[in-house]
UniProtKB/TrEMBL annotation:
InterPro entries: DNA_brk_join_enz, Integrase-like_cat_sf. GO terms for biological process: DNA integration; DNA recombination. This is Tyr recombinase domain-containing protein. Keywords: DNA recombination. Signal peptide: none annotated. GO terms for molecular function: DNA binding. It comes from the Eukaryota.
Length: 74
């Protein structure tokens, strides 16, 4: 699902830096600035908490080791 083909046709995993490079290319073309990736984790947490998903599940899925993420959710 999260992969791409390199110049030799091999399948490569889509890593964070590559994903952000492509996302920021789109963002910049629309004049939206850039993203550093952290906002996607916070956005995902906010979305699932708004859908009433158990906060402990959200914390584990987001790989947060503490409850610090609660300071960022919207």
């Amino acid at each position: 699902l999260f992969s791409w083909r390199d110049s030799k046709g091999g399948i490569r995993p889509l890593v964070r830096d590559t994903a952000l490079k492509h996302i920021n290319t789109v963002f910049i073309s629309y004049g939206w600035g850039t993203s550093y990736g952290h906002s996607f984790r916070i956005g995902g947490a906010s979305f699932f908490l708004a859908k009433k998903v158990n906060p402990e599940i959200v914390r584990l899925a987001g790989r947060w080791r503490s409850l610090a993420y609660e300071a960022y959710i919207r």
